[in-house]
Amino acid sequence: MPHTLRTLLIATMLILPLASCGNAGEEKQPASPGAVQTGIMPGQRAPDFTLSDLSGNSFTLSELQGKKPVLIIFWATWCPACLQSIPSFSNIHAQFSSRGLEVISINIASNDPLPRVQRFQEINNLPYRILYDERNAVSRTFAVFGIPTTLIIDRDGIIRYRGNLLPDNAKELFEALIAPAS
Question: What are the boundaries of each domain within the chain?
């Protein structure tokens, strides 16, 4: 294979996975009023799912319904925007998990084999629950097309926010969601 073709092939293999890595800000809305918005959006009930964590332990989202609000982050180890967001999510976990917020990160498994994600966790010691979406079923259910994709779900299972990053008012939103039910 000629050197130029090999270089082009390698560059393409490196760039294509990054093309699906989300940009900062909220996910794009439909291009026209008649366009169909896909995915689970704010105001809708979050679909239940069961995934395994990096140790093989099973977790089901509905276990938290009626008990805790949830912050979910869909991500991958190869996504620069995902890696940049890790300190924010770790800080949110440190600030709110003891007060009732569950922080869950779901690795999309696309171009991210389980051993790589496990090594990433060992090196970075992320403090929150990491689930592995081996068959991309949960990512498809939630229509995750770019990462990171962030969802904030109240204790009743209703999605209150969906975007690529945390909303500007994230701390106020978490305060409201973890406040005792009246």
Answer: 40-178
